[in-house]
Q: What sequence folds into this?
């Protein structure tokens, strides 16, 4: 067991993409509570990112904000460089940035298709490539990707999202195999139906056709708790896994 159970991530540095709101914000707050210094990332909402930073600092933690598009390799390199230059390392990467567009497949443009997939897959590729050298140097690291329930059950109007999220699972497994010898674990957290704030571009929340045994929507803090655990030293024997946090959605009954 880790001796410092109250702040098991003291001295660690985390980058959480898409962390100005919802699951990303909750994850950043959880990692900071465990002692990690956190880089808060948003695409262009400086105010929202700044509020998360301020809240972490007010609670006694360390955080900075870094705006940038995860599909832009130079922007990603800058995020990681900021983490290293400001806090002295890069230990934890949480690939949370995504976009929840919704459109019938027959009406979807190639640009809309590519944008959703690029954020999830190119973003994870660029982020991991920029980060792993720092983790390898230390012989320790944690990478967590964020999947989703839609690619397991199918959701109308989200073919591009399903492809992106299922691709992340393959990315997670492949990278886990390559990074294991370096003390780096790579896992995916797949949320169920979570109560989040939704931008207008995401469309209306589809009605639940399947209700899990725990008959309610999950919270962002409940997803953050799983990410938080996977980032801790005590989770060092878990890698290449997809952790489903969905209220028992796949159980029979």
A:
């Amino acid at each position: 067991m880790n001796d410092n159970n109250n702040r098991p991530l003291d001295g660690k540095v985390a980058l959480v993409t898409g962390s100005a709101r919802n699951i990303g914000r909750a994850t950043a707050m959880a990692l900071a509570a465990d002692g990690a210094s956190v880089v808060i990332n948003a695409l262009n909402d400086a105010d929202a990112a700044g509020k998360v930073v301020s809240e972490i600092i007010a609670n006694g933690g360390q955080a900075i904000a870094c705006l940038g598009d995860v599909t832009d390799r130079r922007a990603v390199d800058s995020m990681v460089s900021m983490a290293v230059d400001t806090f002295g390392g890069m230990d934890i990467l949480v690939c949370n940035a995504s976009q929840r567009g919704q459109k019938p497949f027959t009406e979807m443009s190639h640009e809309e298709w590519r944008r959703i997939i690029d954020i999830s897959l190119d973003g994870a590729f660029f982020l991991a490539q920029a980060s792993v050298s720092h983790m390898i140097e230390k012989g320790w690291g944690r990478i967590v990707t964020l999947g989703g329930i839609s690619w397991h059950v199918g959701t109308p109007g989200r073919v591009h999202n399903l492809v992106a999220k299922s691709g992340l699972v393959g990315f997670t497994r492949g990278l886990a195999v390559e990074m294991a010898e370096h003390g780096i674990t790579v896992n995916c957290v797949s949320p169920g139906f979570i109560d989040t704030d939704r931008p207008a571009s995401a469309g209306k929340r589809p009605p639940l056709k399947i209700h899990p045994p725990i008959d309610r929507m999950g919270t962002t803090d409940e997803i953050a708790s799983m990410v938080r655990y996977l980032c801790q030293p005590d989770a060092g024997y878990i890698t290449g896994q997809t952790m489903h946090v969905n209220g028992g959605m796949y159980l029979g009954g």
Remarks:
- Residues 13-245 form a domain with the Rossmann fold fold (CATH 3.40.50.720).
- The beta strands are 13-16, 37-42, 63-67, 92-95, 141-146, 184-191, 242-245.
- The radius of gyration is 17 Å.
- The longest strand covers residues 184-191.
